[in-house]
Amino acid sequence: MKKIMYFAFSLMLLAGSVNVAKAADGKDEKALTTEQQMKLDQISQRVEEIKNMDKSSLTREQKKDLKKEITTMQKEAKAISNGGIYLSLTALLVIIIILLLL
Fold first, then answer.
1. CA-based radius of gyration for the chain
2. pTM for the whole structure
3. Residue-range definition of the domain harbouring residue 93
């Protein structure tokens, strides 16, 4: 039983240390493809158009639609440019629990 626990602990520790090292290394960022870069440019142009708009003449529903559009574009841009692998909080908790049990 202890062999299994030690093996599981060492496996989790190894997997966790690789992910943390990858996240801490800022030099190894993934490069965006031309398609992704074009999509990000389109999003930024649309955001600039919305910022430069005269919003005083818009109705309440139109303002809500613009706000929803901006939030969806923000989520999409974040998904496109998201890079790096991070150690999750759950993995940290599991490692701490295993350390306490041993």
1. 22
2. 0.49
3. 2-25+32-101
* Chain segment 9-36, per-residue pLDDT in tens: 776 666 655 544 444 445 445 567 788 8
User: What is the four-CA torsion angle of 67, 58, 55, 51, rounded to 10 degrees?
Assistant: 40
Summarised one tens digit per residue, pLDDT across range 65-101 is 999 999 998 888 887 777 544 567 777 778 888 888 8
Nearest to 83 by CA among 43, 25, 44: 25
Closest of 9, 20, 6 to residue 89, by C-alpha: 20
Asked whether the beta carbons of 68 and 91 are under 8 A apart, the reply is no
How many structural domains compose the chain? Answer: 1
What's the rounded Cα separation, in Å, for the pair 55 and 61? 12
